[in-house]
């Protein structure tokens, strides 16, 4: 073994030893390790691209490897509501967004345009059909979303949105953006909320919040039809969905604390 390799091993063992005593260092180490591995796993969809262009199935390999490494790191999720999953039709899926752990599943995700420049992962997400929108140009973003209505209704595609518009680690969900709801009303497709409990695995809190357990809860809520909802009731509809998701968010967080 050469000297560089030996020093690398020693440095890794030293960091691992320190992480046993420092929760902050352990969070940083977990995040760095997981992000490096995610970019390595993202190489697999690139290899599949010539055979299945812009196909969400290309993400299956990366998602499988990501979940495997997550389990090795102690990340586990209890999933509720699988009976609410309907693969016979397209629709809009709404998920609260906290960190990269929310992207462990294969799907057509709607994300900000800047993500495509995020190392290998950005290019890989392009190969599996993610929709990149330019938030700085609202008109162009709306046109991009409207083009997806045919894919939802005819190709039975499910689009994943993070309706808060950004990552949120707070105790309550942020107010939702109107984009995904306008699209749902336009193509008259269902909206399905999915709520993920708070996860401290990649972050450290001062004071009493030092729980960095990777155990979490995911609840797949029943689909909400938009057939009878008119455009002038859009704001009321958004407030209704936000309220229902926020109530579940509080419930899951309280249950997790008591576990």
From TrEMBL:
Keywords: Acyltransferase, Transferase
Membrane-spanning residues: none
Source species taxonomy: Eukaryota, Metazoa, Ecdysozoa, Arthropoda, Hexapoda
Protein name (record): 1-acylglycerol-3-phosphate O-acyltransferase
Enzyme Commission (EC) number: 2.3.1.51
SMART domains per record: PlsC
GO molecular function: 1-acylglycerol-3-phosphate O-acyltransferase activity
Pfam families: Acyltransferase
Enzyme kind, highest EC tier: transferase
GO biological process, one term: phosphatidic acid biosynthetic process
Residues in Phospholipid/glycerol acyltransferase domain copies: 91-199
Pathway listed: Phospholipid metabolism; CDP-diacylglycerol biosynthesis; CDP-diacylglycerol from sn-glycerol 3-phosphate: step 2/3
Organism: Phlebotomus papatasi (Sandfly)
Gene Ontology cellular-component annotations: endoplasmic reticulum
């Amino acid at each position: 073994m050469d000297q560089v390799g030996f020093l690398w091993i020693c440095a890794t063992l030293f960091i691992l030893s320190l992480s046993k005593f420092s929760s902050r260092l352990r969070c940083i180490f977990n995040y760095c390790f997981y992000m490096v591995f995610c970019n390595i796993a993202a190489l697999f969809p690139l290899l599949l691209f010539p055979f299945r262009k812009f196909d969400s199935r290309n993400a299956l390999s990366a998602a499988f490897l990501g979940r495997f490494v997550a389990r090795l790191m102690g990340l586990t999720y209890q999933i509720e509501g699988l009976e609410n999953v309907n693969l016979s039709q397209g629709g809009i899926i709404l998920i609260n967004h906290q960190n990269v752990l929310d992207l462990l599943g294969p799907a057509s995700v709607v994300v900000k345009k800047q993500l495509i420049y995020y190392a290998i992962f950005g290019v890989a997400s392009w190969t599996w059909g993610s929709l990149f929108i330019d938030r700085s140009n609202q008109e162009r973003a709306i046109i991009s979303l409207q083009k997806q209505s045919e894919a939802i209704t005819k190709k039975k595609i499910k689009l994943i949105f993070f309706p808060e518009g950004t990552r949120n680690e707070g105790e309550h969900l942020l107010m939702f953006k109107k984009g995904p709801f306008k699209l749902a009303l336009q193509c008259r497709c269902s909206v399905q909320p999915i709520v993920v409990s708070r996860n401290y695995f990649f972050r450290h809190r001062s004071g009493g919040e030092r729980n960095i357990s990777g155990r979490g809860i995911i609840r797949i809520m029943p689909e909400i039809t938009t057939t009878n909802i008119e455009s002038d009731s859009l704001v009321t509809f958004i407030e209704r969905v936000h309220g229902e998701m926020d109530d579940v968010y509080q419930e899951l967080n309280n249950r997790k604390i008591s576990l």
